[in-house]
Amino acid sequence: MPGKLARIIENHPIIPAVKDDAGLKAVVDTDSKVVFILYGTILNISEIVAQVKESGKMAFINVDLLEGFANKEIVVQYIKKYTGADGILSSKASMLRAAKAQGFYTIHRLFIIDSFSFNSLSRQIEISQPDHLEILPGWPKLIPWVMEKTDIPIISGGLICCKEDVVAALRAGATAICSTNPEVWSM
After folding, report:
1. Strands, DSSP E only, in 48-185?
2. Which residues of 113-140 are buried (b: 16+ CB within 10 A; e: fewer)?
3. Whole-angstrom Cα distance, residue 138 to residue 23?
4. What pLDDT does residue 94 have?
5. Which residue(s) pair with 96 in the sheet?
6. Quick check: 1 pLDDT over 60?
7. Under a CB-based contact definition with an 8 Å cutoff, are residues 137 and 154 in contact?
8. For the chain, what is the domain count?
9. What is the rounded distance in angstroms from the CA atom of residue 187 to the CA atom of residue 177?
10. pLDDT confidence tier of residue 112, bands split at 50, 70 and 90
11. What is the pTM of this model?
12. In angstroms, rounded to a whole number, what is the distance separating the alpha carbons of residues 187 and 179?
């Protein structure tokens, strides 16, 4: 199953991330095959996922950003039962471990803000065993550093604002980039 996701991302390396209804409306008309959903509530997440899926895209929900849910593993069971989501994004290794157990694709969002967070990567990855890593911020200099610690494919996310950022991240070794900027989605 992870091989399928890797092929899709390799062939479509720009991943739109939507943070509101305007972004959702814009993303359904893109050629992207994977969408990261960075908003929603217990009341509307099923409808958001349905719109993404109806447009022929894989839907990944960031469980850390859903309103109305406790930050507990039960949210993963809810998403499995009540949405058609394909995958889970989280910065929490335990949530990703629970998502894996439910059969979801998983993407570990890693905020690398200092040497402490960088040095804890291996421990977090060992717990989560994700299909992909999303490193934030998406600075190209971080990509080779992370690649030295793991062979898990890397998505560069956060502060990817223009074509130069996309090209630099991909040249540095990222498998894909993720951006909330609709101008980047069509590159």
Report:
1. 58-62, 87-90, 105-111, 132-136, 154-157, 176-179
2. eeeeebeebeebbeebebbbbbbbebbb
3. 20
4. 93
5. none
6. no
7. no
8. 1
9. 11
10. very high
11. 0.95
12. 11
CATH number at residue 97: 3.20.20.70
Residue 120 CA: distances (Å) to CA of 26, 48, 147: 36, 33, 14
Q: Give the C-alpha separation, 60 to 115, whole Å.
A: 29
For residue 85, which amino acid is it?
A
- Record the tokens describing residue 186, joined without a space: 């069509």
Which residue range forms the structural domain that includes residue 73? 2-185
pLDDT tens digits along 125-138:
999 999 999 999 99
Q: Which helix (H) or strand (E) holds 16?
A: strand 14-18
- pLDDT for 13: 96
DSSP H or E segment with residue 35: strand 34-37
Give dist(CA 143, CA 168) in Å, integer.
10
pLDDT tens digits for range 15-68: 999 999 999 999 999 999 999 999 999 999 999 999 999 999 999 999 999 999
DSSP string, 83-119: ----EEEES-HHHHHHHHHTT-EEEEEEE--SHHHHH
Query: How do residues 141-170 score in pLDDT, each as one tens digit?
Result: 999 999 999 999 999 999 999 999 999 999
CA distance 153 to 110: 13
- Structure confidence at residue 19 (pLDDT): 97
Contact 60, 34 (CB under 8 A): yes
